[in-house]
Design goal:
This protein is α+β, with helices and mostly antiparallel strands. The chain has helices spanning 2-7, 51-57, 120-124, 136-151, 157-176, 192-204, 212-219, 223-230, 235-252, 263-269, 275-286, 290-307, 316-327; strands at 12-14, 25-31, 36-42, 45-49, 62-69, 72-76, 79-83, 88-92, 97-101, 104-111, 130-131. It has 2 domains: 2-185 and 314-327, Jelly Rolls (Sandwich), CATH 2.60.120.10; 192-287, Homeodomain-like (Arc Repressor Mutant, subunit A, Orthogonal Bundle).
């Protein structure tokens, strides 16, 4: 199915077998310079972002999704909320999620996290939040996203960037005003310090000196304060291990180079002590071994080479969409 192949890099999705022949998917994607806008009309399905897919993409953008028609139920950490027409859902693309939906029409905007400025820390604790379309501010947001979708084609480049920045301002304001009933992520409000620490960890993942002690010294906090900050993220060591596994996954899944690093080299580069310990942690995180990932990449690469001279059945728009997502910056 062409639509399945087009969105596979971004979503894992399933369709009930009895509905496959009736499935339809149509989308239009537009780049706004510092955001990506997509309008879609799709048959009912279940979609999710699993840890392996998140690691492969390696982005932490914010996605806002407004339902024009159709119902869905969003599941995060075992909890579900309903999303109805007019509701705006917020997702952090660096974290897992799942949803099931009826036939629907929707408008989606993807924004890089830095575009939200000081509101980035608010977004960290609102993954899966729903801004209800029945509220005054929800109505304003829905009208804004509908208008953005209608008029974006006529924007100049500076106008498109300004429109994306205005969207981030509105979403940030909406997030700060949400009640607990509309949050799926129940973690306590995370301070800007945690965001700064996460950015520091990301730049230092390859360093053998990245430890809880280094973070305490770097940010002037006690061990107990550090542990409290990272408690919702599986602890300091758990968070660092998860981020290193994500980097290792991306390295194993990389294409475009005929010479791959040995799996043992990847294990030692990301400080797992031994290939066996790396393989054990990798399988626990992603449900498959490093060798499985490497074998799949090689198989996909051979298939792509074989199809290179044939007319593509994949939408150029969706190809661009995936590339835009990977390169999107504020």
């Amino acid at each position: 199915m062409a639509w399945r192949d087009a969105v596979a890099p971004f979503w894992d999705f399933t369709i009930r077998s009895e509905n496959i022949s009736e499935f339809r998917g149509q989308s239009n994607v537009r780049h706004l310079g510092n955001a990506i806008l997509c309008s879609a009309r799709v048959s009912g399905l279940r979609f999710e972002r699993k840890p392996a897919l998140i690691a492969r993409m390696g982005v932490d953008h914010i996605l806002a999704h407004v339902r024009i028609s159709g119902q869905s139920r969003v599941e995060i950490d075992g909890r579900e909320h309903a999303c109805a027409p007019g509701d705006v859902c917020l997702f952090d693309l660096s974290r897992p999620l799942a949803a099931r939906s009826t036939d629907y029409q929707a408008i989606t905007v993807v924004l890089p996290r830095p575009l939200f400025g000081a509101n980035q820390c608010d977004l960290d604790s609102f993954h899966g939040a729903i801004i209800r379309g029945t509220t005054p501010f929800g109505l304003l947001l829905t009208d804004h996203l509908r208008s953005l979708n209608v008029h974006a084609a006529g924007f100049s480049e500076p106008e498109a960037r300004a429109a994306a920045e205005a969207t981030a301002v509105l979403l940030g304001a909406a997030v700060r005003g949400l009640s607990g009933d509309d949050r799926i992520d129940d973690a306590a409000e995370r301070p800007p310090l945690l965001l700064a620490m996460r950015r520091f960890i990301e730049t230092e993942l390859a360093s053998p000196h990245l430890t809880a002690d280094q973070l305490c010294r770097q940010f002037g906090v006690s061990r107990s304060a550090l542990y409290r900050l990272f408690a919702p993220l599986d602890g300091v060591a758990g968070y660092i291990r998860q981020r290193r596994l994500a980097r290792a996954y991306r390295e194993l899944a990389a294409t475009g180079d005929d010479r791959f690093s040995r799996i043992s080299e990847v294990a030692y580069r990301w400080h797992f002590g031994s290939p066996a310990r790396f393989a054990q942690a990798f399988r626990a995180e992603y449900g498959r071994s490093p060798r499985d990932v490497r074998a799949q990449v090689l198989a996909d690469d051979r298939a792509a080479r074989a199809a290179a001279s044939a007319p593509s059945s994949r939408s150029e728009t969706w190809t661009d969409f995936y590339d835009w997502i990977l390169r999107l910056t504020a």
